[in-house]
Amino acid sequence: MIKLTDTHCHIHEAWRSVNGPDATAKLWDKAGRPHADDLISRALEQGVDRMICVGTTLPDSTMGVEFVQGRAHVWASIGVHPHEAKDYANFSDKLKKFADLASRPKVVAVGECGLDYYYNHSSKEDQKKILRFQIELALQHNLPMIFHVRDAFDDFWPIFDSYPGVRGVIHSFSASEKEVGRIVERGLYVGLNGIMTFTKDQAQLAAAKAVPLSNLLLETDAPFLTPTPYRGTICEPKHVRAVAEFIADLRGENLTDLAAATTTNAHVLFGLG
Ligand SMILES: [Zn+2]
């Protein structure tokens, strides 16, 4: 059976609700709040035997770290999403607590973090400050990074380039072929998910084809971005299989080769033991 890694999901939020309103928890609630361990079991049935649970705030990252302790097949990434930057930029106590998480067992990355100028839920200034903070934290702990960059690459690259030695992935990639070139020349990975299965944008598909296999990672972003033909249901890590099938077909590769390469890439970047 092929083995796959979901390098980006939020299943820990199905395990326990974060305090306060949260889009991810709400989606899990809408789907009847499946048990996180059932999500893992269903993923295993599809050959998805490694999952990275990605944090977006301090409480969410803390919960992700707790979720993965003593649980097989799952690892944690700690992050403050650019949407949330305004709640952290001027709160050094929160940032200190966040930074402490980096030394916890099974934390394999910092992110998701980055810049999002599509929604602009936080000011550009706050987003940049919190991105820099997380890059410095990752370098300090020699951890790879999971970047979320939307409509903001022109501001992202100068910041990224000011920190030599950063490793990581541009997650949920949906930009142009030009950005693929910039990503690959920096030794970064490109994370593709269900977006590719339902996009009508030919430029996005051309970009997905242009990613060298050595720089490709697969993900779901569950509970978001359910791939075709499962649209209308909640996205789970098991759906990385549908993403893999679509991407293999798009790129004219066989599924076994794509699965093997992307699984190896995930292991090289994140060191999933
Ligand atoms: Zn995400």
Quick overview:
Helices cover 44% and strands 16% of the residues.
What does this structure look like?
The protein has 273 residues and is α/β, with parallel strands linked by helices. Helices cover 44% and strands 16% of the residues. It has twelve helices and eight strands. It has an eight-stranded parallel β-sheet with strand order 1-2-3-4-5-6-7-8. Strand 2 (48-54), helix 4 and strand 3 form a beta-alpha-beta unit. Helix 8 (177-185) packs parallel to helix 10. The mean pLDDT is 95. The site of zinc ion has 5 residues, from loops. Zinc ion binds next to loops.
What would you call the structural class? alpha/beta
Radius of gyration: 17 Å
Q: In one word, what is the shape?
A: globular
Mean pLDDT: 95
Total count of strands: 8
H and E string? EHHHEHEHEHEHEHEHHEHH
Share of residues in helices: 40-55%
Sketch the major β-sheet. Answer: 8 strands, parallel
Give the strand order, joined by hyphens, for the main sheet: 1-2-3-4-5-6-7-8
Low-confidence stretches: none
Distance between the ends:
19 Å
Question: What share of the residues does DSSP label as strand, in percent?
Answer: 15-25%
Describe the SSE topology:
Blueprint: E1 4-9, H1 12-15, H2 23-30, H3 36-45, E2 48-54, H4 58-68, E3 74-78, H5 92-100, E4 107-116, H6 124-141, E5 145-150, H7 153-161, E6 168-170, H8 177-185, E7 189-192, H9 195-198, H10 202-210, E8 216-218, H11 240-251, H12 255-270
The structure holds zinc ion.
